[in-house]
Amino acid sequence: MRYILILILATSITACCDKKETKVLAIATEVTSQENSQEMENIYQFKVKNLAGEDFDFASLKGKKVMIVNTASKCGLTPQYKDLQKLYETYKDSNFVIVGFPANNFLKQEPGTNQEIAEFCTLNYGVTFPMMEKISVKGKNMHPIYHFLTEKAKNGLEDSKVAWNFQKYLIDENGNLAKVISPKTLPTDKSVIDWIESE
């Protein structure tokens, strides 16, 4: 009889402990999940200013594929503006948009004011895709959107560095970083076209 009572008591304690452990495990999982969701970001949280000083909300691009590119007016790669505009004209009605960020981080190849940059882009390349105000894409003054683009802890894909002007970041329809394209790879490269046209 005493053996049976001890067995029942032990079983009750084990069951109680199991429930507590399960509850603790569930709480820990929930906390971890909340922490991960807080750390992970997407492009839609960012609001910036365009070259005209107007607000530009990335949330307005939900459902579209996006190419983000840092630009410069006095770079050997500056003619890529022509390819960027061609790409934009070809796919702008197919849920695709290009967003340019002028930056003066590389050999001071973008010295102009926002107004000068706007005039340069329009007069020389007929740019009609959205161009934002000049920012920093690296260093201590790096813009928050580039922290997202270059840090795996924020974008969930990979760490990267902006190597030079005209580096491209491809964002999928859900606002997540999908690919990083090197500066020398043309915007019209097959790898970019295939990504835009993929389902």
The percent of residues in helical segments reads 40-55%
- Beta-strand content: 5-15%
* Mean pLDDT across residues: 87
User: Major sheet: order of its strands?
Assistant: 4-3-5-6
Helix-strand category: alpha+beta
Q: N-to-C SSE series?
A: HEEEHEHHHEEH
What's the gyration radius in Å?
25 Å
- The total of helices stands at 6
How many structural units, i.e. domains?
Answer: 2
The total count of strands amounts to: 6
What's the quaternary structure here? single chain
Mass-distribution shape: globular
Condensed summary:
The chain is an alpha+beta fold. It has helices at residues 2-39, 80-91, 114-125, 144-150, 152-155, 190-197, and strands spanning 47-49, 55-57, 65-71, 96-102, 168-171, 177-181.
